[in-house]
Every structure is written in structure tokens, then in C-alpha cells.
Amino acid sequence: MNSDTTRIVEKTAIHVENVLHQYRNGDDNGMFIAEWRVDRGQQIFLHGESGSGKTTLLNLLAGVLTPDKGEIQILGKPFSTLKAHTRDKFRADHIGVVFQQFNLIPYLSVLKNIQLANHFSSTHLNNVEDLATDYLQKLNLPPNILFQPANAISIGQQQRVAIARALINQPELLLVDEPTSALDVAAKDAFMAILTEICQEAGTTLVFVSHDMHLKQFFPTSVEITELVSTKENQLC
Amino acid sequence: MLMSLAWNSLKSRKKSVILTFLSLVISISVLLSVEHIRLQAKESFNRTISDVDLIVGAPSGQLNLLLYSVFRMGSPTNNINFESYKVLKNNPHVEWAIPLSLGDSHHGFRVLGTNDQYFTHFKYGNKTALTFSHGEPFQSVFEAVIGADVAKQLNYKVGDEVVIAHGTGSTSFTHHDDSPFTISGVLNPTGTPVDKTVHVSLQAIEAIHLHPLHPTGQVKEHLAEEELIPDSVTAIMLGLKSKFAIFKLQREVNNNKNDKLMAILPGVALNELWQMMGTIENLLRIISILILISSLFGLSTMLLASMQQRQNEIAVLRVLGAGPHVIFSLVLIEALILVVLAIIAATGMISVTIGLLSDWLAAQFGLFLSANLLQVEVIQVYVVIVIASIVTSALPAYDAYKSALHSTLSAR
Ligand SMILES: Nc1ncnc2c1ncn2[C@@H]1O[C@H](COP(=O)(O)OP(=O)(O)OP(=O)(O)O)[C@@H](O)[C@H]1O
Ligand SMILES: [Mg+2]
Asked: How many domains does chain B have?
């Protein structure tokens, strides 16, 4: 029994339990998730219509927001109830995040942006530049992009650099929010193929958020956000 | 890393950053110069005279006597009888007495009539005696000893013949083209008014005055030295055998019946000078502190205004694992980079300015300023500036901290 639970914990990347979150200034009833479990190495396509709370859920998983009730465990750690600075550190070490928009610090070079991610984690790599070049090449970016200021490259390129940055510390969990909005269909497909392949190789758990159902084909598992979420009212009834 | 982040962030906001920086440089310069000049003026004045127990002159304010006899500034005082000098010199308490006779100038430099006692007993700074870089004290009536600045600016050297005439203006119409004075010695620099003084004998002063309308060259030929006994001097510096006699002698001098005299203690007079300056000093300090505060508010406003456009940047840093305290320090570091650079720039600017203006300041105000700002008191001012800027930038830093706490992935 005991060893059974340990095995489950070891197998689980994300465990959301009875989580309630409501924006302080929000006038809706917030978001409630009774239970959601994601295994390690799983690649999840999370979709739902605009405003359905996808980004909010990613915020919770990244520990940028904390639930008002319930608990989120990440990689077996009671992530959501950790002390704020421990949670920041844990995120730096184990979670890679890619935003919907504005992923890079505009006035820093691409390389500096990637180095910054490593700076805040406890894996102090001494070959950040090599690794970065490697990832950028895999993501079909020209190598000379490394030394350009982040605001001098296109949005599509920025999104791919953001992926490279999220991967630099070899995180166990990668949270990606709509990264393909600026790509054309062909580039999108190439990008998805590469992303899923990189995660496959490294055994990285991937939660990929999009409302673009076309991308669903790249994932073995897809989850509609409304399947997870019930509004607070529903819960109370 | 945080340093380079802060630096790059500042660079990305060049325009507002440079303006803020300039306002900081100006206000810090004002504060530093006020402090530096205050300290240096005090030191420069205090080092002008040393080891003189009493200065005796005609009754006027003690400040006036001090300023005129020591700093060669202020309005001339009346002269006192030469007889009084002889009496004081022979007073049992007196170890040495230096007669001073002022009132003439040479190309804008004061001419001081005195005697050999001046070169043995006059001290400046920390009881430092005068020393010669070239030559020796004057031996005869028509010899002169010049201070270092006089030699440098007028390009005089030992053996040169110069004209010294009556009057204090730099151009004088009463002199003859003949050059009766020979330079016998040049003094080493002292950083006191001595550097700007032409020293001659008391007899020479008499000679200049005796026949103001006659060519001095004739005086040289026709007058024997005995006929040049002075009948008055401007002031007398006294060194006493025992410090305990100072007040006794001061009283004696002040109550003198034969000549109207006043004796002052240089230290006490200097103190009065500083007390008088104290009010102005404090006023200047308050004004410069207010200027500094206003430019620090400018700095804090600039940082606050930038917060709006930096929401995304903060969100990125947050998600990379930077805690809110990192964001707080980032803003603080940006402020400190600006302030420290402004301090360095202001210090450099003031040093260069003082270096360029030092001659003029010395000539005009008797101020001998060092171009080196790094003294304990000024370093204390640096510390205060840095602390004040930390305090004022804590507000935008806290603002950043708060927005870091609430920043989320959603783009706004
Ligand atoms: N910072 C916030 N403060 C208050 N309410 C918010 C905030 N962010 C999001 N919301 C609200 O929460 C709900 C879910 O928003 P969320 O951004 O998670 O949607 P989404 O599914 O990511 O939408 P999209 O597909 O357009 O990105 C929306 O009703 C939104 O108005
Ligand atoms: Mg979203």
C-alpha cells in the first residue's frame, strides 16, 4: 500500500486537488477543479474557448497564482503551499514556462535572455551558449540570432526563443501557452513536431494550451478545459 | 547578472535616464562643492597662521585686524607707532615680534614691509616655517623676497630687477621706469597668502613713500639707510615666551596709554570668523540638500513611471524564478548605478573645475582649495547621498515588488 502511493507520487507530474481560484477583482465565480492528474512524460493538449480559464490554470500550475483552496502538487512537492521563495526556486529549477505574449526581456540579447533563465535556477550550466545554439538550431532559428536584441527579431522567432529558454534548464515540466499564434500553418506544424520531439527525448511533461484544434493531432492526450473545471456554483450545488 | 540586467534596462530607457542622471550630477555637484569649499576654506584659513600668540594693531574689530594683517583682505586699519613695536619687542614676556607694514602692491600682489624676524618666526600650517626655493632673505633696502605664486605668475627669479611703487592698484603712475628693487629670494609654496606677497624691508616701504613724486632711483642714490627709519607699522605679530602670559599681555596692550593699540588672539578671531560664516554655511547646506532631495525625487519618479511599461518584463523575470525581492533589488540597483555614476561624474567635474580655477580663487578670495575631494567629511557626504537615494528609490522598488507579487502570465 505504502509503496503503491510512493509509486503513484513518483509517476505523477501534476496533481490538482479541490483547487479553487478566484481573481480578487474578478466578478465571476472563479474556477474550481476537483481533481486532475498528469503523469510524468505525458504530453497534454489543453484547449477551450477564449476566456475559459486556460491561462489562469497555467498560472496556477506555474505557481504565479496560488489557489484560494485546495492543493497543487508538482513532481510530488506540495507546490502551491510552499513558501513563496521556495516556490520561486522550485519553478526556476523544474518548470519551464512560455507565455502567450511577451516572453523575452526586450532590451537583452537572445543569449542574455536564455542565460537569465539559467541564472535563477540552481543548475548553473557552463555551456549555456552551446545548449542554446543547439536548441535554436532544432527550432529552425539562424545561429546569429543569439546576439541580436530580443526586440529586433520577429514575434514568431521570439516565441521559439522562448521555448529554447524554457528548455535550457532541462525542466521536468514545460507549460506552454499558445506559442504558435504568430506562425503560419507550415511553420506551426514544423514547430509542433520539433517541440513534441524534444519533450519526448527528454521525457519532459508538457502542458500545451491552445484553442487551435488543428494542433490537437500532435498530442496523444487532449483535455477540454471545461472537463476539468466546474464553476464554484456547480460545486456548491 | 543582476548588475548587467539593471545596466541594460537603464540603457533601454536612455532618454529619461540621461536626463535624470544630469539632474543628479548637478545636484550632487552643488552639494559636494558646498561641502568641499566649506571644509577647504576652513582649513585654508586656519593654516594661514600658526604659532602666533597675539596680533597687535590699531583698534578696530578683531576680525578686521585679522583679515587685513593675515589675509590681506578687508579694509585697511590705521597704523600704529613704530615706537610701540620697539616697546613690545623689548617686553619681558615677548620672545619675538614681527612688524608688518601693508598698503602697497605690485602688479596686484600685496607688498609687505617687515624684517628678518618674519623669515625666522612666521609659521603657517602645522607650525611650518617659511623656506626658500631660491636665494635668501633681503639684506638691504632695495631687495625683495617674493612668494611662490608671484614668482610663477610674473616670471621673476632671483637677481631680477623690479619696480615697486606706492599705491595698491596694479598699475601705478607714481613709479619711475628705473627698477630699483632686486629680487633676493623666492619662497617655497605654502598655500597661504604668503605665496602672493612681495616682502621688502620696512625701510624700503619708507623709501617708496618718502618721495612719492620723485623717481625712486634717486632715492636709492641719495638717501642713507639711517634716514629711512619708519615711523609707523600696520600690525605686529607676537610670539610669547610662555602661553600663560598671553592674556596678561593682551590686557596690557589694550590698556596702553601712549598709543591706541588692540591685541587679538588669532585663534579666537578665526573662531569668530567661523561663527559668522556658520549661518551662511548652514543656509548653503540646506539649499544644496533640498536640491539633492528634489533630484532624488526626480529619480524616483522616473523609476515609477517606467514601472508601467515594465510589467511584462517583471512577469518574465517572475516566471523565470526571480522572487519579488529580486525585482525589488533590481530597481534599487538601477537607482544606485545612476547615483554612483553621478557621484563619480560630479567629483570629477569639481576636481577639474577647482584645478582650473584655483589660481583665481586664491587671488580673489585668498582661498586655497585642494582639487582632491576625497576627505573623510566629503566621503561621509557620499555615504549620506547613497543612503538618501536608497530611501527615495525604495518607493518605486516597492511598487515593482508589489507588481511582481501580482504579475501573471496573461498579457495586459
Ligand atoms: N488578472 C486578472 N484579473 C481578473 N480577472 C482575470 C485576470 N486574468 C484573467 N481574468 C479572467 O479570468 C477568466 C479566464 O481568463 P484566462 O486568461 O485564463 O482565459 P484563457 O482561456 O486563457 O483565454 P484566451 O484563450 O483568450 O487566452 C476571464 O474571464 C478573465 O476575464
Ligand atoms: Mg490565455
From this structure: 2
